[in-house]
Amino acid sequence: MSALSAPAALPLATDASDDFLGHPKGVYVCFFTEMWERFSFYGMKALLLLYLLQHHKFGDRAGLDVLGAYGGLVYCVPVIGGLLADRFLGMRKAVIFGGLLLVAGHAGMAIEGHAATVVNGVVTRDDAALRMFYLSLSLIIMGVGFLKPNVSTIVGRLYEVNDPRRDSGFSLFVAGINLGALFASIVCGYLGQQYGWRYGFGAAGIGMLLGLGQFLWGRKYLRGVAEPPKPLSRGRELAIYGFALLGLLPVAWLMHAVTAIQLGPSTIRWTYYIVVMALAGIVWTMWHGWRRTDGASVPLKRHAPSLLCFSLLGLAVIWLSQRFGVLDFFIEEATLALVLMSVVFLVVGFWYVGFVTRGCSKVEAQRMGAMMVLIFAALVFYTLYEQTYGSWVTFNDRLMGKDLIPSLVVREGAPWPWSIVALVLAPLSFMVASTISERNPGSATPKVAFLLAVAAMLVTLLHDALVLPQNAGSLTYLGSLFIVLLAPLFAVIWAWLDKRGLDPTKPTKSALGLLFGGLSFLPLVWAAQQAGATGEMASVWWLVLAYLLLELGEMCLYPVGLSAVTQLSVPRVVSLMMGTWFLATAFSETLAALFGKLAAIEVPEGETMNIAQAAAKYADLFTLLMWLGIGCAAVALLASPLLRRMMHGVK
Fold first, then answer.
1. 23 - beta bridge partners?
2. What is the pLDDT of residues 434-466, one digit of tens each?
3. In whole angstroms, what is the distance from residue 172 CA to residue 231 CA?
4. Residue % of the chain over a pLDDT of 70
5. Residues 94-104: what's their mean pLDDT?
6. N- to C-terminal Cα distance for the chain?
7. Distance of alpha carbon 472 from alpha carbon 598, whole angstroms
8. Residues forming beta bridges with residue 123, ordered by sequence position
9. How far is Cα 562 from Cα 167, in angstroms, rounded to an integer?
10. Radius of gyration of the chain from its Cα atoms, rounded to whole angstroms
11. Helix (H) or strand (E) holding 365
């Protein structure tokens, strides 16, 4: 079973010696495996855009195109990897195969080749290094697709269905995700720009290699839950691996094609028309689900008036898009990746309309409609959120200070991050502690040693955040830092409100998430205005405030969305709807890149950037995204009473 569906109930052997700090040891194996996987993934992502702009001399538009296509595919492929593990490979083999692909991909990223040169406006790049770059991205995409969904599924299967430790076990696992992302930005982002790109990418690869070794060592603690659902012949297993490796070629080609192939205006125009009309059809389906009555089928002609109204609504949106230049912007900036994402959206949309109108009762149709609204809210939010690896990075690189407390920063001697030691020490301490606890179950030494290693991680993190010279890539750690700090606080807040009957509904929480997501751009608007007016770097604390507001929004919206998918979906399609959630996230990656190009800055050879003009561009983009988030939040808040009724008692 993949991470896209609920974990199955499995009979487990619950030997007390197999537990550690109140949880199965296999959970810690998955914790550190996922920590290293996220370390490698976010470490590479923190450097990706800056690497393209500075080393290969891509323009802002081309760099954002690659970033958007990469992020989109990373969230699409896990749907396939999860299904293959469900039906054939089992989670253990899928994780190992994905880990090997990731190690190979990050090793390839460390081959940076010669830096591009610009002579008389002509860019000369190392073509061999670029081909290796695209192949490496495809290896990482495919590796994440096999590894990520299946590690989380293993965690679910390590607990019995009614085990009270289940929720806290997943909380522990999520902490591993965020710790990996947190340390990734600091270590890889710092090494990549301080010592050279290959050091940052290489550190990400070494991290994944350590994570794979950790998983192989800990297989004995997985209690057999990660094995194939039925015996798998060697030939079929090799065929799956072979097809996955063959799939690397079209993925690598697509990563190249997003910048090399310019789609014709008519292709993009008609794609836009069809997507808008499909959205009108989905909205009609929700309206129909609200007004329908169970029982005898209604003749199609009875639906004609409402279908006509919603068709006219779609046509009005198209006319307004043409009137205000939105369609022209899409024609100019849309990429092959965005068009392909739109095709996937259309397939899912047509399936949804058919399923809800023909295969659901009235209550099921209304719950599915409410869930689709929440998924759309997540799409909007993550379109805003993914600016953190796009326009936020370039804005910080060009127009903001970097160090939180400059007086504490050590600038001489290029110090190495202390976090490297802690990252290795923590998994090793668990391995040692597990071995000691098996030999002497009553000893307190393993627990003490492990907790001391965790404390050392926090100390080294604080040191590196304040003492190391930060850069635009390393500062992306702020997002994960606020998640780690806010998660326990929000758990207490929601519980406190629930006891008093004041806990907001899921639609209201999603609206709050969009509101905070929009407001997170306000500090950056002020920062851009400050930089433009003074001609000096804006304070990095504007970025800190922006991240705080953004993560407040994520804590409101993300857990709610995942929970809603499992609660509101018709049980027989819950896996598919969870896949739709991830596809919406993939779509948001490409949309984020599209919006980011509104602030693209191309500085001609031999000239310096005009700070006032650049600041004005960023201020305009951030203002637009701020009002997009606030406007969608207002609509979501107004619709929340209706959505609550459509949920029919689901809390």
1. 20
2. 888 777 777 778 778 777 887 888 888 888 888
3. 32
4. 94
5. 93
6. 26
7. 20
8. 118
9. 14
10. 25
11. helix 362-385
| Encoded tokens for 377 | 């809210």
Residue 117, beta-bridge partner list:
124
Integer Cα distance of 1 and 575 in angstroms: 9
Angstrom CA distances, 350 to 277, 292, 376, stand at 11, 19, 16
Q: What does the alpha-carbon distance between residue 151 and residue 222 come to, in Å, rounded to a whole number?
A: 11
| pTM: predicted TM-score of the whole model, two decimal places | 0.88
User: Distance of CA 276 to CAs 370, 403, 405, 588, Å?
Assistant: 20, 44, 48, 16
Confirm if 585 and 378 have CB atoms less than 8 A apart: yes
Residue with tokens 């668990």: 430
- What's the chain's length in residues? 651
- Tell me the backbone φ, ψ of residue 470, rounded to 5 degrees: -85, 160
Report residue 120's pLDDT band, with 50, 70 and 90 as the boundaries: confident
Give dist(CA 303, CA 322) in Å, integer.
29
Q: Tell me, what amino acid is at 219?
A: R
Q: What is the pLDDT of residues 520-574, one digit of tens each?
A: 999 999 999 999 999 899 999 999 999 999 999 998 988 777 778 778 888 777 7
Q: DSSP alpha helices (H): ranges in 386-412?
A: 391-399
Give the residue ranges of DSSP H helices in 124-247.
Answer: 127-157, 166-194, 197-217, 234-246
- Is 60:602 a contact under the CB 8 Å cutoff? yes
pLDDT in tens, 324-357: 888 998 888 888 888 888 888 888 888 888 888 8
Residue 52 and residue 62 in contact, taking contact as beta carbons nearer than 8 Å: yes
Task: Say whether 24 sits in a helix, a strand or coil.
Answer: strand
Q: Is 546 helix (H, G, I), strand (E, B) or coil?
A: helix
Which residue is it, tokens 């591993």? 176
Nearest CA to 395 out of 524, 530, 547 is that of: 524
CA–CA distance, 171 with 174 (Å, rounded to integer): 5
